[in-house]
Design a protein that fits this description.
There is one protein chain. The chain contains 13 helices and 3 strands, in the order H-H-H-H-H-H-H-E-E-E-H-H-H-H-H-H. By secondary structure, it is mainly α. The chain folds into 2 domains: 99 residues, DNA polymerase, domain 1, CATH 1.10.150.130; 182 residues, hpI Integrase, Chain A (Orthogonal Bundle), CATH 1.10.443.10. Helix 1 runs antiparallel to helix 2, helix 3 runs antiparallel to helix 4 and helix 6 runs antiparallel to helix 8. The longest helix is centred in the N-terminal third of the chain and has 20 residues.
Length: 302
């Protein structure tokens, strides 16, 4: 990458870092996307950000699509490009913003994976057997599952919890979600019992000077990481009929089971921290599909 591109990218990164509402993962992805775009531009003989055009953006997206990237990844990259060209236009590097004419690839509306209540009951039973007083990691792992399923929290929200985020009296957690938005989410009796066991028996065995106020700790006494939670959930769910692989499966399952049980859509939206009700409505489709499947299997005239 030439010096001018490198300087422009550095300035854009500085602007991104000061922007509100971007998660660390989004910032990292945007930086990577724009860096790759500039390398592609240079390979096409473009040496100045002022030469970036709609044709370049479309050519690069087409080239990316030919590599088999998921539509969700292409959509994210499109958003990154539009953000970058809007900034270039605002900074008077570009006379017009080519990103305004860039269309986002349509994503496939696949229904989320939901783990059945029966399968989850078996997983919880297995975790409970390991959550003994002499196994603090087992106590922690049970709590991770209980909180993910009870609250529908994102894995990043879960690992970010601190001790002061727990309201024991009202059985509520204070969660820091996307866009630095704080919400209060309830949890039930099983999660409360797992939390009590962790605070009294598990956490003290792993606590160290590096623990600070982190709720969930790893074997070295540091805050549990996202990858560790992913590994735990994947290992526990891989034997279920759905073959669900990540913590988001528990979020999907919590939302769907709530709606199956008659919960209000708005309440589920608040629980999950969705900005738009339309995002939450995907779970109504899941519930309808489950109803149809049950009807076909059980009704004599189906």
């Amino acid at each position: 990458m030439n010096l001018l591109f490198a300087e422009t990218l550095a300035q854009y990164e500085q602007q991104l870092s000061g922007a509100r509402g971007f998660s660390p993962n989004t910032l990292k992805a945007y930086r990577s996307d724009i860096s790759e775009l500039l390398v592609f531009a240079q390979s096409r003989g473009i040496q100045n950000p002022a030469e970036i055009s709609i044709d370049l953006l479309r050519d690069y997206l087409w080239a990316l699509s030919e590599t088999g990237l998921a539509k969700s990844t292409l959509a994210r990259k499109s958003a990154a490009f539009r953000s970058f060209t809007a900034w270039l236009h605002k900074s008077q590097v570009l006379e017009v913003d080519p990103g305004l004419r860039l269309r986002t690839p349509k994503q496939n509306k696949a229904l989320p994976t939901v783990v059945s209540r029966e399968s989850l009951a078996q997983v919880f039973e297995s975790l409970e057997l390991k959550a003994t007083s002499d196994n603090p990691q087992g106590i922690r792992d049970l709590l991770i599952f209980e909180l993910l399923y009870a609250t529908g929290a994102r894995v990043s929200e879960l690992v970010g919890l601190n001790l002061e985020d727990i309201d024991y009296g009202r059985s509520l957690l204070r969660v820091l979600g996307k866009g630095s938005k704080v919400r209060m989410v309830p949890f039930g009796k099983p999660a409360a019992e797992a939390l009590d066991s962790w605070i009294r028996k598990g956490r003290p065995q792993l606590e160290s000077e590096q623990s600070h106020s982190a709720l969930l700790l790893n074997s070295r006494g540091k805050r549990v990481g996202v990858r560790q939670v992913y590994g735990l959930v994947a290992a526990c769910l891989e034997s279920t009929p759905t073959g669900a692989t990540g913590p988001h499966s528990l979020r999907h399952s919590a939302a769907t089971h709530l709606l199956d049980g008659g919960a209000d859509l708005r309440s589920v939206q608040e629980l999950l921290g969705h900005a738009s009700l339309g995002t939450t409505q995907i779970y109504t489709h899941v519930s309808i599909e489950r109803l149809k499947d049950g009807y076909k299997n059980a009704h004599p005239r189906a």
